[in-house]
Structures are given as structure tokens and as C-alpha cells.
Design brief:
With 334 residues, the protein is an alpha/beta fold. It has 2 domains: 183 residues, Quinone Oxidoreductase, Chain A, domain 1 (Alpha-Beta Complex), CATH 3.90.180; 145 residues, 3-Layer(aba) Sandwich (Rossmann fold). Helix content is 25%, strand content 25%. It is built from 10 helices and 17 strands. Strands 3, 4, 5, 8, 9, 16 and 17 form a 7-stranded mixed β-sheet that branches. It has a 6-stranded parallel β-sheet with strand order 12-11-10-13-14-15, sandwiched between helices. Helix 8 links the parallel strand 14 and strand 15.
Length: 334
């Protein structure tokens, strides 16, 4: 079968499409033909090499997979998992994460135990299903299961143009929130408005804290008013201490990552003085993945797909991701 692989950590040129042996299906596994797979922010990081991560080589990237069952082992319940059934794959498994410590889905076939499979409902395309769950189900869990965002709350979303960010914009709009989305690109600013952002801050020219204070007032330790109710910050780095100054007294800061640095400076004075609640969200649960698929099927949510390309164009798609040209999700089709 054809697969995207890298045999050594390093630059984008280490990523190639080559022939490799198809997986051997175990007696309790299903053989899947991959229909679509999307890229995530961690893919370039794994390619380059993460010191604390043990990545098996040669590695096949790709965590978010939509597929079709083509065969089942003798121990599989074929009345439940029949040939031709469309399924999504849960990448975060007992033995590791696909695309990080387990081989992923940027290939023609994979072999998976049924317990990691989820039905793709009618009305959800393979490309849409492949946008889940790493970015989108994570965003759902952060905003709803953990963050409990409410109608009419003001949300400040940093890094709003990526996979997690665009999903947060759409989910917050669906919840009836007033959305302030941040991006460093003028072109992406217009796209954020088109998917529901009420306000967009171009951080390449404007300070987001000053913008919030100018438009909503300065947060106060006494009395009400000023600032946003919720700040979504999965960037970290220099933005961490800054964002505390934009959140009202009793407000919430939600985080599910730290793409710009996990050990930033902070300012504890704001946390205690403004009684902030900092809420961490680690990935997603199966029910979050299922809920997102059901929302797409019902037409109440639509994934933002930046591009759909064949796997031969993986370097182009990965380059777009690295250079931050992707708005939403980049999808590959074997």
C-alpha cells in the first residue's frame, strides 16, 4: 500500500510517500480503507522530533481518520461492524496516540480494534468526519464539558484561525456568545467574521488587551463590568500573562495546549485579585466525538476545511500548516 512516512526526525524533506506492506489484521480487528485524514498542529512537531516522545520509526503520521471497513477478523461481531460501514477512528488509545506514538492514518489501509471505532452518520462526508476529533472534539470539551460557556457571555479567543480556534468560534456562536477572535492575518480576519466572529483583532497591529479595555472597559476588582467573561488561550507563551488583564472579575481562562510555550511568565496578582478560574481541558472523551458527528449530521455545525488534497501533496499541506496559512483543517485523501 502507499503511505506517507518518515524514517528519521527532521525537516519536511524527510516526509515521503512510499510503498509499504499493508497491516496484518488480527482476529479481533477490522481492516479499514482510509478515506480521508486531516493534519493537526502536532504533526510538524512529531516530524521534527519531540524529546519526551518515543515515536516508532518509520512513522506514518495522521491522527484524525475517516474510513470504510473492508474486512473483519473472526472474533469481530460482524452484525455490528459489517463490511462497507463508514467509521471514524479514536486515535487516543490505551497504548498511545496515533500519529505520535502509534502509526497513523496517512496511508491506504489500517487495522483497528472495533472498540476504537465510531459510526459516521449519514449526511457527514468523509472529509468532514476526518476533521474530528483531535482539534474539534477537544474544542467542544473545552468550551462545553469543562468551560460551561453560556449565552450572552463575551469570549476572547486567541489563535482563532487554527483548527481548535475556528471550532471555538463556531461553537461559541452556536451557544449565543459574543465572540472576539484574534489572528495575526488580515485575510484570516475576514474569514473569521464570515464564520461568526462578532469582532476580530489583528494582533500583528493591535494589542488585544488594549482592544478589550477600549471596547468593554477595564476589569475592576470592585464592582461589576469590564473585560471579557471567558478567554480561550491554548497558545501560552507571552500571551498568558497578558490575557489575565483582559478577563473580568470572576471570569474564566480556558486552556487545552501551549503552542507558543508551556512555561510562561504569569502574574498571580490578577488571579487572586480578580478571582479568576483557570480551567484545563485535556483532549476529549468519546461522547464529545459522537456529539460533534451528530451536530454535523443535523446541520447545526459545519467543519471549516481549508483544503482537500491527495496524500502525494502532503508536503504542500504540511508546509501550509507550518507557515500558518491554514484556516481550519487541511485534509488529505489517500
Amino acid at each position: 500500500m502507499r503511505a506517507v512516512t518518515f524514517h528519521e526526525h527532521g525537516p519536511l524533506t524527510n516526509l515521503n510517500v512510499e510503498d509499504m506492506s499493508p497491516p496484518e489484521m488480527g482476529p479481533g480487528e477490522c481492516l479499514l480503507r482510509v478515506k480521508a485524514v486531516s493534519l493537526n498542529g502536532f504533526d510538524p512537531m512529531v516530524l521534527e522530533g519531540i524529546p519526551t516522545l518515543r515515536t516508532p520509526l518509520p512513522m506514518v503520521p495522521g491522527a484524525d481518520i475517516a474510513a470504510e471497513i473492508v474486512d473483519c477478523g473472526p472474533e469481530v461481531d460482524k452484525t455490528r461492524w459489517g463490511i462497507g460501514k463508514r467509521v471514524a477512528v479514536t486515535p487516543n488509545q490505551d497504548t498511545g496516540m496515533m500519529g505520535e506514538t502509534l502509526r497513523g492514518g496517512m496511508c491506504e489501509f489500517i487495522s483497528v480494534e472495533p472498540r476504537w471505532l465510531i459510526d459516521i452518520p449519514d449526511g457527514v462526508s468523509n472529509e468532514e468526519a476526518a476533521c474530528l476529533p483531535t482539534a474539534y472534539a477537544t474544542a467542544y470539551r473545552m468550551l462545553h464539558s469543562r468551560g460551561q460557556v453560556q449565552k450572552d457571555e463575551k469570549l476572547l479567543i486567541l489563535g482563532a484561525s487554527g483548527g481548535v480556534g475556528t471550532c471555538c468560534v463556531e461553537l461559541a456562536k452556536r451557544a449565543g456568545c459574543e465572540i472576539v477572535a484574534c489572528t495575526s492575518s488580515g485575510e484570516k480576519a475576514e474569514k473569521l467574521k464570515s464564520i461568526g466572529a462578532d469582532h476580530v483583532i489583528n494582533t500583528s497591529r493591535d494589542d488585544f488587551v488594549k482592544w478589550v479595555i477600549d471596547h468593554f472597559g477595564k476589569p475592576r476588582t470592585r464592582g461589576e463590568g469590564g473585560g471579557v467573561d471567558v478567554c480561550v488561550n491554548y497558545i501560552g507563551g507571552d500571551t498568558w500573562a497578558q490575557c489575565l488583564r483582559a478577563v473580568r472579575r470572576g471570569g474564566r481562562i480556558l486552556t487545552c495546549g501551549a503552542t507558543a510555550g508551556y512555561d510562561p511568565k504569569t502574574d498571580l496578582r490578577y488571579i487572586w485579585s480578580f478571582e479568576h478560574t483557570i480551567i484545563g481541558s485535556n483532549g476529549w472523551k468519546r461522547e464529545d466525538h459522537v456529539e460533534m458527528l451528530d451536530m454535523i449530521a443535523a446541520g447545526t455545525f459545519k467543519p471549516i476545511i481549508d483544503s482537500v488534497r491527495p496524500i502525494d501533496a502532503v508536503r504542500e499541506s504540511m508546509s501550509d500548516l507550518i507557515e500558518r496559512r491554514v484556516f481550519g483543517k487541511a485534509v488529505l485523501v489517500p
